[in-house]
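[job 0417] fold request received: PAS domain-containing protein
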Amino acid sequence: MHEVLRATAGSQVFAVTTAPYLLLDCELKIQAANPAYLRATARHPDELVDTLLFDAFPDNPNDPAADGVRRLNASLERVLRHGVPHDMGVQRYDIPDPAEPAGFRVKVWCPVNSPLLDDDGRVVGLLHHVEDVTAVHEILDHAGSLRRPGAIVRHAMLAAGRYKRAVAQSSAAQSRRDQLWHRLLHAGREGRCIDALCAAAVDELPGIDGAAITLYSGGSVQCLLTASDRWARRVQELQVIIGRVPALQAFMTGEPVLLPDLGRAADRWPSYTETAQGMGVASVFAYPLRTATFTAGTLTLYRRSPGGPPRDAEAFADIATVLVLADTDDDVIDQLAAAGDEDDVNLAVGFLAAARGIPIHDAKALLKTVARQSRRRPVDIARDVLARRPGVFT
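[job 0417] inference complete; emitting structure tokens
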């Protein structure tokens, strides 16, 4: 084994990370598998080490459409040839079932293959990293949402998959997590998964009396997708009407807004606090529905009595992000995106008019002229203006 591979296999990071990794030499022979990879694939080191990768993990012979070996081999060869990592996106690749000698387990992964280089920059091996996103894929596939932009869906799947993997370190938490996923998957076959999630939040999270999911675009365009009951819907509609509220702040900042005692937030949100308390709200917890690239909306949880946020609330927010992508109609997202674009343009026009002391129609004409000359969309120029990026109108 090359010294670089030996050092990688013997490193503490390789051993203790919860991310599944497989170490390969340039002949695609397995040199090491970390404990997380062994757990993910239900294999023993003696079955894998010194075995050719595709002997250890062949295509499922019962699936005539199986292309895991072909696609993975192409990716690994690409990394060996060019010496740069390759992200395979989402890939179905069934694995042998240790409980059945000739059986296979259906699995969907997000694999990334990376080169290992020596001091001279030559590729001497490969790291094969996978994330198990099978449960998330089942929900999205059933909902027909895999036609959505691949990067967005994949980021959401990875977020949920990584959380599930982290929770797996605790057997008690794993049992609870599995129960929730099975419940939501079942409910999604009969209705909308996001409706089931709001109901589950009230049932599963201690002290929570109501839950709602809202989409946002551009900060002012909002769409209440679902709520656990009529009370939660009325309370969430209040946030939509008033505007400057905890849920909007969570969306804008990408960080949770936690108000265990709403009465103490009166100085910050006087109008909202007074009205919400009048409707029986004592605590509000707003969580952004975010992927690695954008924030789609919020999951807001309500209590009728003061108290802290439940332990598993952020897990529900992770799942809600995935389920929003699965359940939301394309036309809702398209309308929100279009309205958000228009909102950004109008804000930028107003800013330009005030900054330059010119009429609104002149500011709008100026923005369109710059967009045309730079061959960019007006909304992109508008966002540069709002972000105060230098050089936009110089």
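[job 0417] notes: Confidence is low (pLDDT under 50) at residues 145-149, 169-174, 186-190. Residues 330-356 form the longest helix (27 residues).
[job 0417] exit 0
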